[in-house]
Amino acid sequence: MVDPRNVKAMVVPFGSDGENFTWTYDSRTNMRLHDALGQVLLDGLRAVPEGSGVLAFFPSYASLNTTTKRMRESGLMGEVEAAAFVVEEARDGPAEPLVDAYRKALGQGR
Fold it and tell me: In whole angstroms, what is the distance from residue 34 CA to residue 56 CA?
């Protein structure tokens, strides 16, 4: 689906604000970490060429849900959605509808 020459894998050890991404069981409720991660995602979207995207992997669905919920509460998700088409994997749902939605968005230049 994506030319390997157009892929760059990265580990992001800290946020734009210098916040270290120390993801532990005890830090899972630290909203500063989730805010910093949301900002990194937005910064990444702003840095890639138009028509490109960012793929983020989370260690668990709980972490994904906490981060996206926080991003919605803070308004950051609205900024991300204005910059790119957002697809979130459902825990128990099939992957095909997500892939189809992603392909459709690519065809529309999102």
Answer: 13
Q: Domain ranges in the chain?
A: 13-107
Q: How many Å apart are CA 86 and CA 37, to the nearest integer?
A: 15
Closest Cα partner for 56 from 95, 98, 87? Answer: 87
The residue whose two tokens read 């088409």 is 85
Question: How far lies 106's CA from each of 3, 18, 51, 95, in Å?
Answer: 14, 33, 7, 17
Question: Closest Cα to residue 45, out of 88, 4, 76?
Answer: 76
Quote the CA–CA distance of 20 and 6 in Å, as a whole number. Answer: 28
Query: Where do we find the tokens 């157009």?
Result: 6
pLDDT in tens, 75-99: 999 999 998 888 888 788 777 887 7
Please state, for a pLDDT cut of 90, what percent of the chain lies above it. 28
